[in-house]
Write a structure and sequence with these properties.
- Helix 5 packs across helix 6.
- About 40% of the residues are buried.
- The chain starts with a strand and ends in a 6-residue tail after the last helix.
- By secondary structure, it is of the alpha/beta class.
- It has one domain: Spore Coat Polysaccharide Biosynthesis Protein SpsA, Chain A, CATH 3.90.550.10.
- Strands 1, 4, 5, 6, 7, 10, 11 and 12 form an 8-stranded mixed beta sheet that branches.
- The chain has 7 helices and 12 strands.
- Bound molecules: cytidine-5'-triphosphate and magnesium ion.
- Cytidine-5'-triphosphate binds next to strand 1 and helix 3.
- It comes from Sphingomonas dokdonensis.
């Protein structure tokens, strides 16, 4: 059974700002992308790790991760995933991961791959802690709602079909696309370490999570 991890890293990190796209910014002494790449490469359940990078980012990749296997992504996350899937050869299971979530554990990968024994896809989720309110002031009950993280794991065939057929609005994750085809997506226990780095202050928060002292 062949399992491939695809890390999408073709964004520009607009909300983060700064001189480099955030996935190449130093996080606890190492480019952010290198953290998840190292963890997924070391995971015994994963056979290959592939990166989708932005156009013109090859020199950045070369210095962050010399020798990494990569392809060039597109203008949206969905397009980057689609181009990545096209670039990797046949597999049985594909994990899609955001470079913006640096700290991936083997435990989360294990939960996801176990869930694929009975489901078409699996995503890690955490409960919603805050009270939710709509723009019109209506309270939104949070019971039954979850925050979705990556990596997300899928059976190869349904993920390829979901990306080949997509004609809806821009989705924010791949699970949504697989569900649109009628695929089953299991929810597994997420991990606070997988929190996404989006805004400038998130770098220091991520460093604190690994006990790195920000200077
Ligand atoms: N991504 C990608 N291709 C794109 C857009 C995003 O591969 N065209 C990737 C990002 O590199 C990131 C992940 O998708 O690892 C999640 O996206 P996000 O956190 O939104 O990153 P950016 O799009 O880079 O940030 P921003 O939206 O602030 O510009
Ligand atoms: Mg984005």
């Amino acid at each position: 059974m062949k399992t491939v991890a695809l890390i999408v890293a073709a964004g520009t990190g607009e909300r983060m700002g700064g001189s480099l796209p955030k996935q190449y910014a130093l996080l606890a002494g190492r480019p952010m992308l290198a953290w998840s790449h190292a963890a997924l490469s070391a995971d015994p359940a994963i056979d290959e790790v592939f990166v989708v990078i932005g156009e013109g980012h090859q020199a950045l990749l070369d210095s962050a991760l010399p020798g990494a296997r990569f392809t060039i992504g597109g203008a949206t996350r969905r397009q980057s995933v689609a181009l990545g899937i096209r670039a990797i050869g046949a597999a049985d299971r594909i994990l899609i991961h955001d470079a913006a979530r640096p700290f991936v554990s083997e435990q989360v990968v294990d939960h996801l791959l176990s869930a694929l024994e009975t489901a078409d896809g699996a995503v890690p989720v955490l409960p919603v802690a805050d009270t939710l309110v709509a723009a019109d002031g209506t309270n939104v009950p949070r019971a039954g709602l979850s925050r979705v993280q990556t990596p997300q794991a899928f059976r190869d065939e349904i993920l390829r079909r979901a990306h080949a057929d997509w004609s809806g609005d821009e989705p924010t994750d791949d699970a949504q696309m697989v569900r649109a085809l009628g695929g089953s997506v299991a929810l597994v226990q997420g991990d606070p370490m997988l929190e996404k780095v989006t805004w400038a202050g998130d770098i220091a928060a991520a460093e604190a999570r690994v006990g790195w002292e920000t200077r």
